[in-house]
UniProtKB/TrEMBL annotation:
Family: Belongs to the bacterial solute-binding protein 5 family.
Pfam families attached to this UniProt entry: SBP_bac_5
Name under which the protein is recorded: Peptide/nickel transport system substrate-binding protein
Source organism superkingdom: Bacteria
Signal sequence, start to end: 1-20
Predominant subcellular localization, coarse grouping: other
Keywords: Signal, Transport
């Protein structure tokens, strides 16, 4: 059959897919033949990155979360096609007060871990309390920062008493940091090191480790799973490749059935233009964003005029066109287009790229030029085009005559911690949302215990605007607070948004369920995959 690009309708508009992959109407019953999925995500256990990459109390990147979502069950889960979370380990959940400060869940009857141990409300309380008390260096615990106390009533009811109103709390209970773990496997006072994972999710997992890295994860359908997800296969293998070219070769040769993030722009373009063959390209809207992060206490960028000048100089349209083409869109706020509360705050303040205006900003602040900076990026986490992207950014800044920049690439296992430790003045990061709400594109960067460990503090944002937005159960009513926050960010520039990306997955045409295998938040939903009849 012909190769074709399959486009899903805008996820945040909650519309149905307009096209599905060949055979997607089939159930994909799961015949025992493992579906093999390739990824370029790296899973390492190092001193720099942390020795417990798969502990729910530490893990906080899209790759490790995609492993945990298959194996460690949460009270709530994101439904297929996005939308508000639905009960998973829970039978029902909801706020029990008018102020969104008391949230109660009732567990499903007969819930158990994959090893047969029963799951009670006490296990949920243990898991949440553990994540909060361990305070992993990754900062993931901050997702649960509004939890004051966790109460249990009997074996099946869990009650969360919150410090303040938090309408986003159901979403937070769908993230891996809120995963339910067994105290026999996860000690209360320390993280679980290595690559073993145990839970009550749709799969159990076996790890193949070489040289301190997870190279293959085998997910086997968990017969004890009770939850909202329909598992359409018996086994999936996730294989980590060193680069996108090797992953692409494996798909073409039939060594893998599916390839996911991150494909190169060239691979995507080639598949999109192909008119024959047995490989499908699935394109869907995405909420992935890329941005520059600043250590606002570092001398070269301490003066916000320097950061404002960079915001005034960077030409996002040119950057996207030269590096990503139609696979990304310029972004002028931390909150991407398609999410309630989005505004083009940076464009409203700076307009088009303008050297004259940038020079005026620096001159008015008494900043000597050219400003010397190193732009840091990671070589192996956000895809093969990252280096080219930073070459273009550096060129744009240098061509203005106002900056003299160079670039430096570092592997993710060292890069992530160096950024958190303040060793970089300016560095490139990506964000894949924990859940599709504007709060999750703002609080992780601006709240206390933010995951960047940024020294930037704005009291109005932390004390007033974020709490105000969380009191609004109707997220449209939170838009005013979100707009004010985005305007403050555009003025202070603690971070500088660059672009918003689409999501891509490629699969052999006998694989079903590909339309839902990757959602807008880059969550890999392996349970959707099955085998059907080729084209």
């Amino acid at each position: 059959m012909n190769r074709k690009t399959l486009v899903l309708a805008a996820a945040m508009g909650l519309l149905a897919p307009v096209l599905a992959a060949c055979g997607d109407t089939e159930s994909g019953s799961g015949d025992g033949d493992a579906i093999v999925v390739g990824t370029t995500d790296r899973f390492t256990a190092s001193e720099e990155e942390g020795l417990a990459p798969l502990d729910p109390a530490w893990a906080y990147d899209v790759g490790t979360w995609n492993i945990l979502r298959q194996t460690v069950q949460t009270l709530m889960v994101q439904p297929r096609g996005d939308g508000e979370p639905v009960p998973d380990a829970a039978e029902s959940c909801g706020f029990t007060d008018a102020g969104n400060e008391r949230y109660s869940c009732t567990l499903r009857d007969g819930l158990q871990f994959a090893d047969g141990d029963p799951i009670t409300a006490a296990d949920v309380k243990y898991s949440i309390d553990r994540a909060l008390s361990l305070k992993g260096d990754s900062g993931v615990f901050a997702l649960l920062s509004t939890v004051d106390t966790v109460e249990t009533q009997g074996d099946r009811e869990v009650i969360f008493h919150l410090k303040a109103a938090d309408a986003t709390f159901p979403y937070k209970l769908s993230t891996p940091v809120a995963g339910i773990v067994n105290k026999d496997d996860y000690a209360q006072d320390k993280l679980r090191e290595g690559f073993e994972v145990d839970g009550s999710g749709p799969y159990t997992m076996e790890s193949e480790v070489k040289g301190g890295a997870l190279v293959r994860a085998t997910f086997t359908k968990n017969p004890s799973y009770k939850g909202a997800l329909q598992v359409n296969n018996d086994k999936v293998e996730l294989v980590a490749y060193d680069n996108a070219d090797l992953m692409g070769e494996a798909l073409e040769s039939g060594d893998i059935d599916v390839m996911t993030r991150s494909m190169s722009p060239e691979q995507i373009q080639k598949l999109a233009n192909a008119t024959d063959g047995d490989i499908e390209l699935v394109e869907s809207p995405g909420l992935e964003i890329r941005y520059l992060a600043f250590n606002t206490k570092a001398e070269p960028v301490k003066d916000k005029a320097v950061r404002q000048a960079m915001a005034q100089l960077i030409n996002r349209d040119e950057l996207v066109a030269k590096v990503y083409g139609s696979q990304a869109e310029p972004l002028f706020s931390l909150v991407p287009a398609g999410v309630t509360g989005h505004s083009n705050a940076f464009f409203n303040k700076y307009g088009d790229a303008n050297v004259v205006k940038a020079r005026e900003l620096l001159e008015d602040a008494g900043v000597d030029t050219p400003v010397k900076l190193t732009l840091h990026y990671t070589t192996d986490h956000y895809g093969p085009a990252t280096k080219t992207e930073f070459e273009q950014l550096s060129k744009q800044l240098n061509d203005s005559g106002l900056f003299r920049t160079d670039i430096e690439g570092t592997s993710w296992d060292k890069f992530r911690k160096a950024g958190q430790d303040g060793k970089y003045d300016v560095y490139g990061m990506g964000w894949f949302p924990d859940f599709p709400d504007a709060d999750n594109f703002l609080s992780p960067f601006l709240a206390e215990d933010n995951f960047l460990n940024s020294p930037y503090v704005n009291k109005a944002v932390r004390k007033d605007l974020i709490p105000q937005s969380r009191r609004q159960a109707d997220r449209l009513n939170a838009s005013k607070s979100f707009t004010e926050i985005q305007d403050i960010v555009a003025d202070d520039v603690p971070v500088l948004p660059l672009w918003q990306g689409k999501q891509y997955l490629a699969a052999r045409d006998d694989i079903t369920g590909t339309a839902y295998a990757l959602n807008s938040s880059s969550t890999l939903q392996l349970w959707e995959l099955g085998r059907g009849v080729s084209g």
